[in-house]
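dumping this here before i forget
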Amino acid sequence: MDRWTVGAVLIAIVVLAPMLSVFWLALHPTENIWPHLLATVLPRYLEDTLILMAGVAALTAAVGTGAAWLTTMYRFPGQRWLDFALLFPMAIPAYVGSYALVDVLQYSGPIQTLLRDLMGWQSAKDYWFPEIRSLSMAVIVLSAALYPYVYLLARAAFREQSGCSYEVARALGCGPYGVFWRVGLPLARPAIAAGVALALMETVADYGTVTYFNVQTLTTGIFSTWLNGNNAGGAAQIACVVLVVIFGLVAVERIGRRNARFHRPSRSSRPVEAHHLHGVRGWVAFLLCMVPFTIGFLVPVVVMTWHGLRKPEAWLSADLFSAFFNTLITGGAAAAITVLAAIFLVYGIRMTGHQSARFLMPLTTLGYAAPGAVLAVGILIPLAQLDHWQADTILAFTGWDPGLVLTGTAFALVIAYSVRFFGVAQGAVDAAYGRISPSLPLAARSLGRGPGGTLRAVHLPLMRASVLTALLIVFVDCVKELPATLLLRPFNYNTLSTRVFELASLERLSEAAPAALVVMAVGLSAVGLLARTNR
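structure:
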């Protein structure tokens, strides 16, 4: 094999290694507590996870599909603005949304305080209010943060459908609801299924939200077994259960879409024609779309801004600057490494076409499906063993102890980010590469350019926009990533996400607000780019 194929295979192996490590650790634990887990906590972890997934799947499907249908098929007050604003909750990490919503709804919050003042109630015994830190509230917060996955894909599916199909349905007597249930929804089902699957993967991977709402999921079980129980093998066994759930989601989603492909009947088919909603119906549509936008974006932004203004000195904290600098270094390094590795992998496989490398390429996208906590288990334990071995070896030969170079620095964190979001970079680079005419690199090769020269002179200039987009998206994902950061960061090493988590967990929202607002601002930059490319 040539160097390009060898390099591509090595990159694929590095991306897959943490997941293989998890399975190995689970099968060879130092202390096998699997029977104990199975008899005690694992059923509760699995039950809460499945209930959470079912609730998020139902809500994200209903909200995302409904919002996409309304903004695509109808014109009403604020529709053009909402068409893009409904994507904004993607910029808000779910754990930030949970802190904001609890702050608004808790006993000392503005809503319950207003109710007591208006009704004359003296204490919580005088009235009923829903339990705030509960599984149902976690479902609402996660759905408000994740419905844009469904909305984005469903909106694209509705826009690409032929208007002729709807005209035929109306001619056959279908009303607005009949057109949606019998034509629009079946045609958009593959896109909706893909969006729900993405939302569920993020739900399984979540740690900050479920911890704040006291929900015991498989991800919290990994933290508890590893950190509190000091049993890495048990954590790896729970991580395997998480991977089985994730791979099951991927399989179900792909099987469900396997025979569900729809195409426009001809190039001359007319686009969907939106209908105007006037009066009360138009304002009802506006309010329905405003509900998820308010919960998923407006409430977190307003609450965090208010807390940020209450304590302006928090913006000048040395710890905030340190967390920002750490985030910039780790996220920037991970984004650069991930995108460069994706370019090398995609180019090497497409150029050589070697079957072994081509087989590994789809598998490298599985890292994005694996939760950060799972990858942390698969990275930290073998990396710690390697770190101790190299430190002992250097000490034996030189008498100098270098310390833990790999796990005592942010190195493990950068590796985890790169593996976790490699699928994002690979998808963007592969799509950009596919848009380049094959005649251009062939012409460069005929003029004496080698593979590396062709990549630098032809492919990279043409892929510049996609590469920059991939860099931004990977960086934003790194900034928002919480579980892997909590498990892999060195001692006393904070990023923006961990600073928000730690301070908010201690009910110090005014100090957490500046870091949260910076995270949201970074996320908005990616959402703005996404909205621009999906006009």
